[in-house]
Fold this protein.
Amino acid sequence: MFTDEYFMRQALREAESAYDKDEVPVGAVVVIENKIIAKAYNQVELLNDATAHAEMLALTAAFNFLGTKYLPDAILYVTDEPCLMCCGALYWGKVGRIVYGASDEKNGFQKFTSINPFHQKAIITKGVLQEECAFLMKSFFKNKR
């Protein structure tokens, strides 16, 4: 029951909340021992804050929930490939595993670097529910044009 697809669907729910609020539809959840301890969606427009990405908000909530600055036992599920800013936060937070859905050719970390920007012990899984994640993003920007 608690598979990567299950938790990515929870992140997709967060992304749908962002979509409904006219935010770029990215959602994230932080999981430890098959339990969601934090969740968030992009709130850049709402907060007038370019750093209010889903990953950043979910990490802050997880740090606060656990009272720690490191998350080596955590898994971050995010619907879109993290940008370099979010990669930095994931690196410094020592997140143990990062799972993302859709690749982001315009703003994802792979556009800007060929080296691994995550903590050296982090395990990266990409492409989980990729089509669903990409469809939500494409729909959002199609409606903007």
